[in-house]
Design goal:
It contains ten helices and 13 strands. By secondary structure, it is an alpha+beta fold. β4, α4 and β5 form a beta-alpha-beta unit.
């Protein structure tokens, strides 16, 4: 755990979504039809219940084939595995789609921050849904026309918490090198890993993961015409006896994901002591950026801290409109929160960000929202 001043802040945020929209009710109907046709009637009933209760209304995908009917979609070809896209095919699709989507989010973050590409000193790229070499970091360096000697830091296969990991690393960099400007780009194409399965865990993943990219610029703020969120004290911790509760393995038909139904309960058990250590006797924060890794996770944090619907609205809204975008999600939530605070806040507001990933791993960080032109304490 570290103590920070107010010199490390998110100067700009950008997000991007693919052009293909998955409507939850329609997607559920197609999947249950495919399961029923293949003889998985019990799984079809599970799927219908899971899709309707996970808190998602729409998601986005880079794969237009997922909009096809169950009979014509190879990603749910229960009758013949020979038709299902291989991991190799999925990774080719990932490479085609990840770079332009990450580029779009990065350009928006740079525009929002007012920072020129020539001033970016560090590039942190984040993804756990695909890999290729030269990687996303090298591709974006060229496409964004960053300096050839920009310091590149790729974070791969760290799961949903990795967006927060990148923010923590960015704050560390700026704390030690105040002139640094760090560009973070998270790209996740989760829907590429949908595959035919009647297992509840696989159906759960198919129900609420979506595709998207987010980016931000972290640096030392100067005169501000808009509000910024400064990055404060942080903790990163592995929970005990929970390594098997969230697992990704590389399979022949994409990445195999297992999410334990016990995750919300474990978060309820292990998060409060970590939040207490971080707050160090301070008051409960006013605004909360909770990674919406599922409706149960938001519900657990809301109940633990007696949060209002307004305090969890940003996380629920992102889950409802986009689904869980893995590492990219936390910046969607922070963008939503900043837009709301720009409208309502007239004085600094204290906040908390939380995200969870395989391990089980938790990333926690104190935040402060500073209204436009409000003097930031040094």
């Amino acid at each position: 755990m570290t103590r920070r001043g107010t010199d490390m802040a998110i100067l700009g945020i950008g997000t991007a979504l693919p052009s293909y929209r998955l409507e939850q009710e329609e997607t559920s109907s197609k999947l249950t039809e495919a399961l029923t046709s293949a003889g998985y009637r019990q799984a079809a009933r599970w799927a219908k219940k899971i899709f309707s209760s996970c808190g998602v209304e729409t998601r986005f995908t880079c794969e237009p084939e997922l909009l096809e009917s169950g009979d014509n979609c190879r990603y749910v070809a229960y009758s013949s595995l020979n038709q299902v896209p291989s991991t190799d095919e999925r990774m080719k699709k990932y490479r085609e789609e990840a770079v332009p989507l990450g580029f779009e989010a990065a350009v928006r973050a740079l525009e929002d921050s007012g920072v020129h590409t020539a001033d970016i000193t560090h590039l942190i790229t984040v993804s756990c849904t695909g890999i290729f070499l030269p990687g996303l970091d090298a591709a974006l360096t060229h496409k964004l026309e960053l300096a050839a000697d920009v310091k590149r830091i790729p974070l791969t296969f760290l799961g949903c918490a990795a967006g927060m990991t990148a923010l923590r690393m960015s704050a560390d960099i700026v704390e030690h090198y105040p002139a640094a400007k760090v560009l973070v780009v998270c790209v996740e194409l989760c829907t590429l890993h949908i595959q035919p399965s009647g297992e509840r865990e696989a159906l759960f993943g198919a129900a609420f993961f979506g595709d998207g990219a987010s980016a931000c610029v972290v640096g030392t703020p100067d005169f501000r015409e808009k509000g910024v969120i400064s990055l404060g004290r942080q903790r990163a911790v592995l929970f005990p006896d929970s390594a098997d509760e969230m697992v990704w393995n590389v399979g022949n038909y994409g990445f195999d994901l297992y999410l334990s139904p016990h995750i919300p309960k474990l978060i309820g058990k292990y998060v409060p002591p970590e939040v207490d250590r971080l707050l160090d006797g301070g008051p409960v924060p006013e605004f909360w950026a909770i990674h919406p890794g599922g409706r149960g996770i938001i519900d657990t944090i809301q109940e633990l801290y007696g949060l209002s619907e307004e305090q969890t609205e940003a996380s629920r809204s992102v889950l409802r409109q986009c689904g869980n975008l893995s590492s990219a999600t936390i910046l969607f939530v922070l963008q939503h929160l900043r837009q709301a605070l720009d409208t309502t806040a007239r004085s600094p507001k204290q906040g908390m960000a939380l995200a969870f990933g395989p391990g089980l791993n938790a990333e926690l960080m104190q935040l402060t929202y500073w209204p436009p032109s409000f003097p930031m304490e040094r």
